[in-house]
Amino acid sequence: MEAHSVRSAKAHLSRLLHDVEAGREVTILRGKRPVARIVPIAEAQRRRFGQMKFSVPDDFDAPIPDEELARWQ
After folding, report:
1. Hey, which family's this protein in (predicted)?
2. Phi and psi (nearest 5°) for 30?
3. 68: domain CATH number?
4. What is d(CA 9, CA 11) in angstroms, rounded to the nearest whole number?
5. pTM for this predicted structure
6. Which of 3, 28, 38, 41 is the most exposed place for a label (fewest CB within 10 A)?
7. How many structural domains is the chain composed of?
8. Could you report the per-residue pLDDT of 19-64, keeping only the tens digit for each?
9. Which domain holds residue 38?
10. How far apart are CA 40 and CA 26, in angstroms?
């Protein structure tokens, strides 16, 4: 894994992207502290968002009953 300062990353972004496309990771440092990591998109797509499972009832778009609608007005 390569590490580059922000300044170096800005100056060599095209080369860094080429390296990432080849499967390598690049870390961006602010001073000596890592602040970002550039990874190939295929790796990032493996993560799954929305772990919560839910279902939508068949009548989710049915009109709101008049008594409930009155509470909102």
Report:
1. Belongs to the phD/YefM antitoxin family.
2. -110, 105
3. 3.40.1620.10
4. 5
5. 0.55
6. 41
7. 1
8. 999 989 999 999 999 999 999 886 555 566 677 778 888 888 999 8
9. 2-72
10. 10
